[in-house]
Amino acid sequence: MRHSLTLCIAAGLASLTSGSVLVASPSTARAERAAADQAKLDKALAGKTPGKPVNCIALNRVNGTTYIGDSTILYRVNAKLTYRNDPVGGCPGLRNGAGLVTRTPSTRLCSGDIATVRDFVTGIETGACSMAEFVPYRK
User: Fold this and answer.
1) DSSP H helical segments within 18-109, as ranges?
2) C-beta neighbour count of 88 within 10 angstroms
3) Phi, psi of 124 (to 5 degrees)
4) Which of 21, 76, 90, 109 has the most crowded CB, counting CB atoms within 10 A?
5) DSSP states of 54-80 as a string?
6) Quick check: pTM over 0.85?
7) What does the buried/exposed string (b/e) look like for 34-51 if buried means 16 or more CB atoms within 10 Å of the residue's CB?
8) For 5-61, what is each residue's pLDDT tens digit?
9) How far apart are CA 19 and CA 77, in angstroms?
10) Are 111 and 87 contacting, i.e. CB atoms less than 8 angstroms apart?
């Protein structure tokens, strides 16, 4: 038994050193995710020009929300206007299919407001983030 285990380990090590098994390093995987996030962001904002940041947006005007990785949130108002928010420190967990829950005393979402990241399947809150200024992108 010990002999066969040694052979299995040796065969596994040989396959790793022969180049037949490729393992991505964490930094390579991060770089690939960052490139994919940038491509998604570029596509979402294509043809739009950034304007002067604003402190608040009216939530009742938002028609859709898109998360780009864990660090950018796009609030789509209409085909001509999208607000970009890059929360302070990002919003860890958004990449994994979670969503944001915001609680505001008014109908506006403002910089400094806290949003919680929630897994809607399990109902578990996995983190929180603080909204930054909202940059309008217009066609």
Assistant:
1) 26-44
2) 12
3) -85, 135
4) 109
5) BSEEEGGG--EEEEETTTEEEEEEETT
6) no
7) eeebeebbeebbeebeee
8) 333 344 444 444 445 455 557 788 888 888 999 999 999 999 999 999 999 999 999
9) 50
10) no
